[in-house]
Design a protein that fits this description.
This protein is an alpha+beta fold and 145 residues long. Helices cover 38% and strands 14% of the residues. The chain has one domain. The longest helix has 22 residues, at 30-51. The termini are far apart.
């Protein structure tokens, strides 16, 4: 059986980050300390995603991150982009196109842009040996709410 590695890249885009107030007496502003702590916590959650052993574990980790952030409605389909891994930047593919690629065993790269993450959080990537393993994750991430 032909196995294709799928690359899942959760690319975290920035917007809606907490603003920083001016530091008092040369110290770090409370808003900046809060933003730094949030970045560290989110990075820890992303590390858990990257270390997940299989699609089911990754799905659980994604759900935990969604719950922890408390903003699951922001994880809607408009935030994702899927393209052939060898393809240059292009328009997002539809859900049907993504599922057709998975059915054919084509290598795909999924990039999920989540607008409320801080800008300094790096992306995390996960490879799947079996293309069908991505389908439950698509179901978890791309469900319209």
């Amino acid at each position: 059986m032909h196995r294709t590695s799928l690359l899942l890249a959760l690319t975290l885009a920035a917007s809606g980050c907490p603003g920083s107030s001016k530091p008092q007496s040369g110290g770090v502003a409370p808003a900046q300390r809060t933003a730094d702590a949030e970045r560290r916590q989110v990075q820890g959650r992303l590390d858990e995603l990257a270390e997940a052993e299989d699609a089911a574990a990754l799905q659980v980790a994604v759900q935990a991150l969604r719950t922890w952030l408390g903003q699951p409605r922001q994880w809607r389909a408009e935030g994702y982009r899927v393209r052939l891994s060898a393809q240059a930047e292009g328009p997002p593919l539809s859900r049907a196109e993504v599922e057709a690629l998975i059915a054919k065993g084509e290598p795909v790269q999924l990039t999920l842009a989540v607008p409320f993450f801080p800008p300094t959080v790096p992306s995390t990537q996960r490879s799947f040996e079996d293309p069908a393993a991505l389908k439950p994750l698509l179901d978890a991430l791309l469900t319209q709410e």
